[in-house]
Design a protein that fits this description.
alpha/beta, 5-stranded parallel beta sheet, about 20% strand, about 290 residues
Amino acid sequence: MTIDPTFLLVRSSPGHEPLALQMLLAEAGFDGLRTLTVDTVDGAVDLLARVPVDAVLVAAGPEAEAQVSTVGRLRTVDPSLPLLAVVDSPDIDIAEGLLDAGANDYLQRHELSPALLATVLGAAVARRRQEAPPSPPGRYDPLTGLLSQGALIELLGRLLDRRDRRPDYRFAVIALDVADFYAIRQRIGHPASDELLVALSHRLLASARPIDAVGRLPDAEFVLVLPEVDQPDAARAVARRLGHTLGAPFALSRDELTVTPRWGLSLSNDPYDGPHDMLGAAVLESKTFWAA
C-alpha cells in the first residue's frame, strides 16, 4: 500500500492488552503505519481533538457495555470518523448495540488476520481521506504544525470543565521559552530562526507522550498540556527533562546552535478563572527564568 495512516487503538476495558492487534496492524502491510493507544475514553477524546486520525479500533474485553459506551462517546466527537469494533463474543445483540452506538463495522477477534485488517482498514482510510472536511483554519501553527494558541485554549477549557466535574482529576501545563530569542533571531536571521523553531517543535513532539498536547504561542514560546498528571513533582520532573532536551545543541543547515531554555508550570489543583488564566500563569513563570 502507498498510504501512511494513523490508527487510534482504544482499550474500552481496563487492563485489556491490545498487543495482538498492534502486531496484526503491523503485519497488514501499511507503509509508515503509526498506532496510538489510549486506555480511557477521555484520553481518546482529547487525542482526537489534536491529532489527525484515519480510523479508530475499539478493542474490548468481556465487558460489552463498556465497548458500546466507548463507541457512542467517540461517535459524538467526529461523525465522519471510521469506527471499527473488535469483539470477543459472537453475540448478535452486542453487534447490533455497537452498530446502533455508531460503529461502522465490527470484527470478531478469532477471525482477524492481517489480510482482513488490510482490506477493512484500507477502505476506511480511503473513504476518510476522500470525505473528511479540512481542518479548521487557525487550529495549527503554520510554521511548526503544532496546536495554535486558540486550540490550546479550547483544550484547556475542556480539561478545566472535567476538573470541575471530577475533583480528583489533575493535569498540568508547561510553558517552555527560549531566552533571548530576539537576539538570536537578529544574529542568525529569520530563515535560520524559523528552522530553529521547527527543530524545537520536532524535539518536543519526540519527547511527549501520545496523550500530551504540544502547541506553540507567538515567537519561541511552546506549551505542553499533560493530562492525567497526579503529582506536582511529576510535572516538574517532565519540565526539567524537556528543558535538558531543548538545551542540547541543534544542527541547523548553516550552523550548530545551543539555546537556553526556560520553563514555567501551572497545575489544575490551583484556582484559575479559566483557560487563559491557567495558560498565562505558566507563561509568566517561564519568564522568571526557571533554568532547566
